[in-house]
Prior knowledge:
Layout: E1 5-9, H1 13-24, E2 28-32, H2 36-55, H3 63-70, E3 71-73, H4 77-81, E4 86-89, H5 95-108, E5 114-117, H6 124-128, E6 137-142, E7 151-156, H7 164-174, E8 178-181, H8 190-206, H9 212-221, H10 223-226, H11 232-239, H12 241-251, H13 263-270, H14 290-311
Parallel strand pairs: 1-2, 1-4, 2-3, 4-5, 5-6, 7-8
Antiparallel strand pairs: 6-7
Amino acid sequence: MSELTIAVVGSGYMGGGIAQVLALSGATVRIADVSEEVARKNYERLLEEARQFVADGLFPDDAVARLEANLSPSASIEEAVADADFIEEAVPEKLEIKHATLRRISAAARPDAVIGSNTSTILIASLAEAVERPERFLGVHFSNPAPFIPGVELIPHPGTDDAVLPVVERIVAATGKESARVKDATGFVLNRLQYALFHEATQIVEEGIASPEDIDTIVRTTFGFRLPFFGPFAIADMAGLDVYSFCYASLQTRWPERFATPESLKELVDAGKFGTKSGAGYLDVPAERTPELVAYRNRAYVAMQRLIDELGPAPVHPAPATSAVN
């Protein structure tokens, strides 16, 4: 990707991390901010962070040299985007700031430059109103911390040219990350799911059923333990969609509307499609692959537990008090 030129506008925590991974992929990356001074200070911070990441074994040994070769601060937004093939906007999550920034970007960028926004909450169609030639614009949503979270949401708005998506997918793939296409809708996918879980967790706390600490323990040691390997549809298919249907019926004895059986689940169960055990479900995994899938699942879970044991518990609680020795 050495021939690709990228601009990242907004060089703070998120934008800076995005710039790091793009530069490490071999692209020429220029960062810009509200001033050249801010961009230069953030550039130095990114190099210092990279030195620490190398020391901690989180970045490859040559990461700093690659960043020094591929990453640079620009004097202005206009200078950064002037000859860029792809531009990622990562300024604060306020519509007026993003609109003003996107106007400057699209006015100074090449007509064929692809423009992405790292917004996590604002509808892409709303942002597109400030972009000249909005057919080249889409959401490209990295997650925090950008250097280490591997998933990226790609969100076209209704006017996005279909030809733009493969271009951005190749850019993301070159960083070693994995992208998924989603439609332009409130919350997109990541935050809609994340906040649905958080909302239910807060309800459980407020009902006095369990403490935040115990809920976190249950999530990370049960269904959350599966999530690095399988999404909710794969988990449901393996558990059995008929079992899910029975569980929904039980939950409905207390919350008939909140836990109404999804129509798609009802249709699959009524058709005798129970998931992997019947060879058809949400993901249509052939029944003959079930032994292979189960073997993978078991290896994955044992490997995850070994990793957790190696890392030790997350430091989210106060350190245990130590007794004074006389």
